[in-house]
Amino acid sequence: RIQILFEMARTEDLDEVNAWLSKFCSDNPNKYEKEDSPFRVNEYYVNQKELPGACMDWASTYLHKLDCPLKFKIVLAYHIAKEVELLDINQNFTQHNADKGSQILAAEVARCVFNKVHQVCHRWHAAYQATKELPYFVREYMLDDKKLLSGACADQNRRRKMEDRYIVIPSINNLLQLDGKDAGFFGVYDGHGGIDAVQYTLQHLHLSVCQSTYYPHDIAKALEQGFTDTDTNFVAKAGRENLRSGTTSVVIMITPTDLYCAWVGDSLAILARNQTYVSIMSPHKPEREDEKKRIEDLGGCVVWYGAWRVNGTLSVSRAIGDASHKPFVSGAPDVKKIPLEGTEDFVIIGCDGLWDVIPPWEAVEMVVDYVKDFGVDANRAAKHLVTQAGDRGSQDNITVVIVFFEDGPLVTSCRPPKAETSTVFPIPIPVTPESQEILERLDRSVRGMYDGPDPVFVEESTVYEPIPQEETEEDQENGDSSRPPTPFSEPGDKGQRAEGAYTRGETPHGLITSENGK
Fold this sequence. Notes:
Layout: H1 2-27, E1 45-46, H2 51-65, H3 70-85, H4 89-92, E2 95-96, E3 103-105, H5 106-131, H6 136-142, E4 148-155, E5 164-169, H7 172-176, E6 184-192, H8 196-210, H9 219-241, E7 246-254, E8 258-264, E9 268-273, E10 276-279, H10 289-297, E11 302-304, E12 308-310, E13 320-321, E14 334-339, E15 344-350, H11 352-355, H12 360-374, H13 378-391, E16 398-405, H14 409-414, H15 433-446, H16 473-478, E17 506-507, E18 510-511
Antiparallel strand pairs: 1-3, 2-3, 4-16, 5-6, 6-7, 7-8, 7-13, 8-14, 9-10, 9-15, 11-12, 15-16, 17-18
Helix pairs in contact: 1-5, 2-3, 2-5, 2-8, 3-5, 3-6, 8-9, 12-13
């Protein structure tokens, strides 16, 4: 039975993919022909090593705008990045800054990615039309049994620029087509001084973690090495291109048995167990005693200038990037491992734009109350927190990621009770107690185990008699008294419209102009 349900779920996913591919191919040519990009790609350079992360990011963002199904988007973005990575750079792209290594303009590579999206979708769609099959790796990596419900919301708020980014990957193995112990990867990155560092971290941190020699057998060390490598690589890039930005980062990785938290800076992740706030990390702020000592031992200082700042400048003591502030602002993360007990409800990851106005314990209460009132919806719950932070006067960008544990007590308590099931049929179906008794009698009768009278079924009559209506003077004038007036009479009908009734397409509150009621 489990195998049947598994295959049914796989079929439903693939049917959704086929429907999306058909619509995409009917609406779009096999080449990206628009002059403008579907979204803004900043003017910077990428090298061969940076291509995979950048290409996956651009492909995923473009597919998201096209409403591509999430599981398919993950697999497709990886495949497109691989195809671009295999291209000959010298023949397909214009080289720049040869003295600083082989570099390509990001916008040029992004356009190649958009073309690949169209080409691959048309190729796979044509193959499906011929064979009724998608490539094997699509079927293999489309379906997972993760018990996580995730969502996110980000708002520029009152800032002139949006320097926050977030990442939500329910299955890192599906994205990178890896074998072994799987994990979900979720993070919030809060940039400062520009978006170069935060964009670089968004594209490369998860890849650095999974490319570590420690992954997946030692995820804690893999996270530590991934953060350090990402920081080192961006600082080198900043030296080549004169970049001065940095970003805080907090990442949660969840396996079936453990939760891992790794962070640099003052963004925060919290855990809710049994609807109660649990602290799992301490943000890196200059006034923290161990951080202050580390900075002073290196020859730096922590001074008050509206807030505690490293050398009077930065209000965070660790970050990815900030090349001009090394080594005082470290890129080495703290990592914590939390065994899962089965009582976990959800995780909230947020930047300081949230935590400056909403304390952690209150954020947990807000999410619990929201779920009890409106049900489990991670995206809406995240948006609720962002809205509350804005209403309370937060001046910063606000970004929130929420991950619910599907088997946690909160989600379980909000599920509707399961319907009674039949013991006669192998596939569960909801039945009433009376129907259950009849089915069991039939089953025993067929098997020769029932000696009582056979069940009797009475077929009810479904003959409808017309309701006599009095003929009005107006009906006589119109010459049609065969149909009584109804509250749904159409324009041009000869029946009268009852007072206070509404015609098809109207509601008591206005006119419905589309099928979904908007």
